[in-house]
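Support reply, case 0932

Customer input (verbatim):
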Amino acid sequence: MSVNDEKEMELNTAAEDAIDAAEISRVDESSDYGAEQIEVLEGLEPVRVRPGMYIDSTGPDGLHHLVYEIVDNAVDEALAGYCNEITLEILPENVIRVADNGRGIPTGIHPKEGISAATVVYTVLHAGGKFGGGGGYKVAGGLHGVGASVVNALSEYLELRVFDGEHIHFQHFERGKYDEPMKIIGDTNRTGTEVTFKPDPEIFTETTVFSYEVLLRRMREQAFLNAGLKIIVRDLRDESSPIEEILHYVGGIKEFVEHIHKSKSSTPVFPEVIHFQGIEDDMFGEVALQYNTDYSEVTLSFANNIHTPDGGTHEQGFKNALTKAINDYGRKFNLLKEGDKFSGDDVREGLTAIISVKLSNCEFQGQTKGRLGNTAVRPFMEKLVYNKLFDYLDEHPDTAKLIFDKSSQAKNAREAAKKARDQARARKTALESTSLPGKLADCSERDNKYTELFIVEGDSAGGSAKEGRDRKFQAILPLWGKMLNVEKVRIDKVYGNDKLMPVVAALGTSIGEDFDIQKLRYGKVIIMADADVDGSHIRTLLLTFFFRYMRPLIEEGHVYCAQPPLFKLWRGKQVRYAFTEEERDMFASELAGDSGAKVDIQRYKGLGEMNPEQLRETTLDPKKRTMIKISIDDAQKADEAFTILMGDKVEPRRVFIESNAQYATDLDV
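Our regenerated output:
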């Protein structure tokens, strides 16, 4: 479909919508509008009608969010001091079971509702022990009384077992409703709560399959944030090879920092993780930090064990205090020139920090708690971090000097980058969108709602792509030579690089602190590389570059990877393209038919082997192509893998290769 066709379709659709709206308006004018037209959704019906309001989406993120809500309730018991072990199991058919050894949800009759209190928790929105000063929890995460009932409403079935030390209480729900009240089904000396549920495929139409790795990552976070809490994670879907991981970290967030450095194969600048904590009124703050020899910053913040990816007052207070403490230390010992100072970016280069606050009443912005809003937390964290960190630096001058030297190098690099950027602007080179790279074959369309940029490996494939594209909305930029590894250089080395700056110039957004998503020239940025080791290398290098210096491109969903076919199969005039070995075998059998004739098969070793027509039919045509949309999680995984495979440490690379060798196929050796 051409861009003009798409625009015409949009206009036609808009016209049809306008006609429909007019018809509705006429009907409404002729009908009565009274109390009987007001629809009331009772019980948990609002959750099933608008699930996105409660769990953000009905895709994979929302699916896993169900598990987090149940686990968060168990963690709340640990925060209250009544639970030290939680078990999460993925059972066959993607059924989830979460058990804890806490007090167990109260099962007595609720004085207002007239049913078991546990039933109330699982069937009434905003019911729980997390409200007001008389609530059951001083500190709590979860959806504040919404979580349990939301999970129940969005499950095909849910079974609740409560162990009170004497009896086992049981209740079965289907899509949030129940036929029988909670009943006693046995005796026990155990205490705690066990929840078993199966997500409803009527709600989660995209997938109901859980990712063990996604759940394990979240559970590991919870174990780090709650020192001493044991969390057991099991994947029992394959009965022949069950998987189990026991997460138990006595060192808490100090071990969290060490884990991040180990997983990224980062080399710490000094051996000890700096750790401190403090209490003021109903606020508890805890920080662990360490610097490494890399150039990127990893700062993770949490409030009541809930990850706050958008930061908030706790993170802002930490950053303000970190910058002030290091600057003041430099002035005290005459390490900074008069009037000179470090910026926040300078003191956070190579920093890994975990920030955790626990409050009696968290004020999260947004239903999914992306940002902490409590205003009192910022000055609390500023005071805590400044005093504790300054004292630490004063008492550990050798470590202080290493941090100061690291910040000084970052400051020098920042100034060098500014100089290089200013020089580039003065020369009207790659950073200005008015000067496009010579190898770019641009498109005629200027609206980035429709435009696509294919970043293509090699001049040969670039030539085929130029001939096979739709010139109206598809642009082609060939890459050649070895790509710069931005993980091992500072930003001043990126400016002027003849491999990366053509990409920056084509996109028009600039990089780093100058990045401006509003200037993006192409709505889709598509990496098109060969399906071999070199192609994977190029994809990883580009993703790392986007992740480090153009992150909003990924966060706002503009980055894709093309999926060119691996095989061409033909018999006579019948042609099929296969993207996997399984498809190759299936198409070969299909083309051979009952006669069993020998089907011709070509294995593509590179995009350059495909002529323009083949490339258009398989990889460029929006009607037929397959593409992978890159999410921020994908970029982080690529970043970690790249650090391991391309970093300075040999041992992590050897371990990675040995553990993943079983998955290697079609090696081109």
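We compared this against your earlier run and they match. Two observations from our side: The first helix runs from residue 3 to 30. The chain has a mean pLDDT of 84. Please reopen the case if you see a mismatch on your end.
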